[in-house]
Design brief:
The protein has about 120 residues and is an all-alpha fold. It contains 8 helices and no strands. The longest helix has 14 residues. About 30% of the residues are buried.
Length: about 120
């Protein structure tokens, strides 16, 4: 069933077999952070910038929109898309939900181009 496909997708993601994982996530019909993360990680194989919007689409369908990890991934997508509102709004939510993400973001290469900005420094402490 859906759960079996989902579990197999998680295993394939951990092995770095993103194409297989993406097919399994899709067949599971479960919109989850793991599916969105796999979609994002597959960008590094495909270099297709449409992946950012597709990842955001999956994240926006997740039932629990209060998850810190999902907000953090949305912030990364904001940085990649150079969408300051998406970046800062979601990074703020992520840090409010999990304070440890602030220190992590301060060192995260995904945010390097924003690291010297006051708005970023105020969030990523």
């Amino acid at each position: 069933g859906d759960e079996v496909s989902y579990n197999q997708a998680v295993i394939a993601t951990k092995k770095g077999d993103y194409e297989t994982a993406l097919n399994l996530y899709q067949s599971s019909k479960l919109n989850t952070f793991n599916w969105a993360l796999c979609k994002y990680l597959n960008y590094f194989n495909t270099k297709n910038a449409d992946v950012f919007d597709a990842t955001l689409g999956i994240l926006n369908k997740i039932e629990d929109q209060s998850d810190a990890k999902s907000a953090y991934l949305k912030a990364i997508l904001g940085a990649r898309k150079q969408d300051r509102d998406l970046l800062f709004n979601n990074l703020k939510v992520a840090v409010e939900k999990d304070a440890s993400l602030g220190a992590y973001a301060a060192k995260d290469i995904e945010f390097a181009q924003y690291a010297q900005e006051e708005e970023f420094k105020n969030i990523a402490k």
